[in-house]
Request: fold
Amino acid sequence: MTPHGLPSMLKGHPMIGAGPLPSGSAPQRDWPLWSVHVALAVVMVNNGVYHVLAKVALAAGVHQLVFCVYRDAIALLALLPAALTGERSLHHLMSPKLLLPFFLLGLTGILGNQLLFLVGLNLTGPATAAALQPSIPVFTLLLALLLGLDSLKLRQRGDQLRLVGLALCVGGAVLMAVFRGPLLLGAGDGEPVPQLQQQGLSSSAGGGGGGGWASGWVGAWSMGVVSLVGNCMSMAAYLTIQVPVLHRFPAPVTVTAMAYVVGAALMLLIALLASPPSWTVTGWPLAAVVFAGLVTSALNYALMTVANSRVGPATVALYNPLQPVASATLAYLCLAAPIFLGRSATPTP
Reply:
């Protein structure tokens, strides 16, 4: 879809982050504004939990593609019935013109977002993966400006504050990516703690086979960061593309389900071509997959879509800085992962 094609779907829709859907749409009627912000906070905390659980599953040897295929299948089992029962009255608004946007949503928000995140998580760790998520608001704004869906008026206080917030997001992401700071909490001397070594949670362990993609920790870690940046760019594209889609078809759960239909099909195709060594998932990794499917995928994506229809992708994306806090805290409490100021001096998560 060209930059001119996306705005043409808006037909007078308010700019990104500037307002709700037209009056009478289901999201605006059923969701008061305060509950949207609460939902976004819950989504980011859930994502922080997912970062830790997914790392455990990958460290146990679950292949990234297998994890994603099962996650998407579980999400579809939850989303499709909800869409068919809760938004049936809106399905007459669906048209062939939405097929390309649905494909782009599945390609960016499901396939690209999930797969690149797991590859990056596998090569770095929960703290690093979560720390780069605050770059999503930056990519979202840049994409919206490029497509003509948003604007910045530097003389307006609101836009000035938004730029300050974006600068803080960039600064935090850069700090976590390149600065090797001192230990704040956890085992001393910057060495991997025994529990992390036993569970294979250090970056060099490379659960799921990802560690072999680059020789040495520096190469693997750098590749992980590149994958995570791609993950953030994919999520920014997903949030931005959703705006005109929701304007034309204001059924958030159905939009989410259609994106998952496309994304799950593409993920399964790639997995079959890649021929993972094993499709078996048991124990705690299975619990992580179920959590990812029901909570991180079905619940979180549906909540984000509803929020996107109310406050726009810029506001949705600005909640991402909550992820590093949740992820680092849970990794410290549950996995005894040390917390550093910036990136750790050794290859620990």
About this structure: The CA atoms of residues 106 and 263 lie 4 Å apart. Strands lie at 180-185, 339-342.
